[in-house]
Amino acid sequence: MSSTIALNREAKHEYFIEERFEAGMVLQGWEVKSLRAGRLNLKDSYVLVKGGELWLLGAHISPLPTASTHINPDPTRTRKLLMHKEEINRLIGSVERKGFTVVPLAMYWKQGRAKVEIALVKGKQEHDKRATLKEREWQRDKARILKGGTRDA
């Protein structure tokens, strides 16, 4: 069983990843059960810095149909992220002064707790995205050539 719950594949395409961090999350019981079932989407999520704290917005955790009847699950609620104060201050400084953004890259289990891998990122221009795609294809072709196969054009 893999410890990865979900990946944000779009983030690697849309941004240059400068630095990665690990953060904990404040979750409700039904959210933990849904995460164990793998019902998470990080595609359009981002991290907001507000009042010296980090908040995860846009992450969609689908409630299980067996969720308790006395609570009203909100799949896209804002969730607080937990990090050391020094790390938060470093992120805040980079976001405010250097024009960086913070986005979640992945969510996974670590010692029974849900963790989020967040990254300090800078947006890519369209030509940067094409260059990245071209480089990835070249690496794939190079590996295929070295392995002894040929590329059909």
UniProtKB/TrEMBL annotation:
Keyword RNA-binding: yes
UniProt keyword terms in alphabetical order: Cytoplasm, RNA-binding
GO MF terms, alphabetically ordered: RNA binding
Cellular localisation: Cytoplasm
A GO CC annotation given for this chain: cytosol
Domain of life: Bacteria
Keyword Cytoplasm attached: yes
Alphabetical GO biological process terms: trans-translation; trans-translation-dependent protein tagging
Family of this protein: Belongs to the SmpB family.
HAMAP family xref list: SmpB
Physiological role: Required for rescue of stalled ribosomes mediated by trans-translation. Binds to transfer-messenger RNA (tmRNA), required for stable association of tmRNA with ribosomes. tmRNA and SmpB together mimic tRNA shape, replacing the anticodon stem-loop with SmpB. tmRNA is encoded by the ssrA gene; the 2 termini fold to resemble tRNA(Ala) and it encodes a 'tag peptide', a short internal open reading frame. During trans-translation Ala-aminoacylated tmRNA acts like a tRNA, entering the A-site of stalled ribosomes, displacing the stalled mRNA.
Stored NCBIfam families: PRK05422.1, smpB
Protein's name in the database: SsrA-binding protein
Species of the source: Acidithiobacillus sulfuriphilus
Biological classification of the source: Bacteria, Pseudomonadati, Pseudomonadota, Acidithiobacillia, Acidithiobacillales
